[in-house]
Amino acid sequence: MSADAAPKLTMRDRHRIMTRDQIMTSALEAFAERGYVATTVDDIVGRAGIGRATFYLHFDSKAAVLRELRNTRMTVWTEQDAPRGGPKGRPSVRSFFEKVVDFYTSAPELYTALHQARAADPEFAAAHRATMEADVAEWIRSDAMPGAGEAQLRLAIAMMYTMVDSFMHLWLVDGWPLDRDAAIEAMTDALYSTMR
């Protein structure tokens, strides 16, 4: 067997993966129908056709399921996809916003659940802030904004998350008619102006 070949999955491994996927699918359906806050673990296990014990073999909370949904369904972006400051960075900022907007418009129920979880679940809100802190550290490491200090990086990251969240909420949740390209262009201009 070559070093690149994936190990062969046993029947038990395949069953575990299928059960985990069923839990995530059932959770997303429940979040879409009832909202994140109103959804219980019992709602999820009922939809998945499993017992609570099986749920807890895979996840320790509904917040853990939502984090896994976010992590597995979001497009994997490389370091080169991150927004960049400097004189030639504007196209990277626009590309970043395009990818985020397109992802959330393809999965509005996931966006809504994430938004609700950040607002109502302290565990999920803390995880979201940890992600933002990791972004600050990554932008420092990669020199995403040449010459910028930590305070300027924090401002840019806060603006980036806030603009995306506000735009997506107005568009996907409130149904406000916004032009995708105009909104992306406006967010690009605002973020890029802080990154120069």
Q: What's the SSE blueprint?
A:
Blueprint: H1 11-34, H2 41-48, H3 52-58, H4 62-73, H5 90-106, H6 108-120, H7 122-142, H8 150-173, H9 180-195
Helix pairs in contact: 1-2, 1-4, 1-6, 4-6, 5-9, 6-7, 6-8, 7-8, 8-9
Kindly describe this structure.
This protein has 196 residues and is mainly α. The chain folds into two domains: 52 residues, Homeodomain-like (Arc Repressor Mutant, subunit A, Orthogonal Bundle); 122 residues, Tetracycline Repressor, domain 2, CATH 1.10.357. The protein is 72% helix and 0% strand. It contains nine helices and no strands. α1 packs across α6. This is TetR/AcrR family transcriptional regulator. GO terms for molecular function: DNA-binding transcription factor activity; transcription cis-regulatory region binding. InterPro entries: DNA-bd_HTH_TetR-type_CS (IPR023772), Homeodomain-like_sf (IPR009057), HTH-type_TetR-like_transc_reg (IPR050109), HTH_TetR (IPR001647), Tet_transcr_reg_TetR-rel_C_sf (IPR036271), TetR_C_15 (IPR041669). Keywords: DNA-binding.
Quickly describe the structure:
The protein has 196 residues and is mainly α.
